[in-house]
Amino acid sequence: MSSTGNNNKGVSVSSANPKVLLEMRGIDKSFPGVCALKNISLELCDGELLALVGENGAGKSTLIKILGGAHLPDRGEIFIEGINPRIHSPISAQQVGVSVIYQEFNLVGGLTVRENIFLGREKMKGCFIDTGEEYKQSMGLFQRLGIDIDANLRCGELTVAQQQSVEIARALSVQAKIIVMDEPTAALTTQEVENLFAIIKELKSHGIGIIYISHRLEEIFEVADRVMVLRDGEQVGTEHVRDINRDKLIEMMVGRSLESEFPERTAEWGPERLRVENLNRGNLVRNVSFTLRAGEVLGLAGLAGAGRTETMRVVFGADEAESGCIYIDGVEAKIRSPGDAIRHRICLLTEDRKGQGLILFHSVRENFGLPNLDRFRRGVFLDGIKERKEFDDYVKSLNIKISSSEQQVMNLSGGNQQKVVLAKWLARNADIIIFDEPTRGIDVGAKFEIYLLINRLAGEGKTIIMISSELPEILGMSDRIIVMHEGQIKGEITDVANAKQEDILAMAIN
Q1: In which residue ranges of the chain is CATH 3.40.50.300 found?
Q2: pLDDT tens digit sequence for 403-462
Q3: Which residues, in sequence order, are CB contacts of 264 under 8 Å at separation 6+?
Q4: What CATH class is the domain 268-345+430-510?
């Protein structure tokens, strides 16, 4: 595994004698049957970015929810600029200068940018809202951040990056001293990430302290001053980024050293399994053709909007092709719906597993059983014993960490949610498995488990298509790589072992 160290490009703390903005001392928090946090202490200075990392379930979300007033600690104290305020709600946290920007934004899509920024704190002129003053102040905030957004646009019309900027502007509008960013780059393009980093640099230059949560370790070395590691609810350590490298950081997170970030696999390909010829759907999918063999892992690369997901949605029957043919084991397959795809043993693990792959308020067993009801049905009744036994088998084989089969799937970590989605499709005995961003929002330890599962499936003769925006992942896991741009295939890499990220980018931008 390549190491990254001593290459921090972040802006250091704003002064030689930084002021302590935040102290969290001896924080404990337990939920029924679970000790979420044990004796956690944290310090953040003005103009500093502290990265908070750890595997799913390490306690990161619980800690920031306590800081943001969504949870009350069982024990411990919080000090803001040396004062111990009583943070008992998100509003009280905001009043003392703490703003949390969660991965899933808290914006009202039907309201304008201006209305969202001042929601609950409207600027009044007599009995009426002073819309002109709200617009003026909103545009001033965007000018300070160096971004161009019309404050009269509805938030539902904005891109993810623009919505994130609105959240940051809202934090500035309440004079936040401390801003928490939870997975801020998860859904951003490369250029949008660079823009966000520029905004972060601007915030730090004004003395704002930032707590930054991310599973993308390369970002930690790009923007952080210090990094704090949590594991199983306990504090492993806090280090200056300049004093640590990627290997050491991973070891602190998972509690062991990983010899390789991507597990090795000897590829043994079988006969042609899937052939796509001249597939078209408007400008999203244009004349796409490729083949895949049994046991092969095909990486699908490209920038956001390149047509990767759109192509796979057509292959899966979620969107209808205007023209083109799909062949499975040499026989043309008429795929006009996901049901047709499933009957041809094709499955799709969607990019948005929470929105499209799972029913969050249902149990893990029910999510597993939904696409398999025809197999578990006995007359007009459900054979619950058969369903539970088969699910239990997948829990063991995939190492799914759950408290019981009736646990709500929304309460699982990202990695375990992904395994539940995979289990329900494996139960269909799928031969062609499409992974769309399989490790997005998943910690480094769980990523390795997903990689092992992909390799195991390929070793069993399954055909794997993997869409990923993480170029190291594409290079580390693929037998062959196809690069797309504006709905078309722009190139193919067969000698993956000797390929570089620059080779993929050169095709992706032309």
Answers
A1: 268-345+430-510
A2: 888 888 888 877 788 888 888 888 887 899 999 988 876 777 778 888 988 999 999 999
A3: none
A4: alpha beta
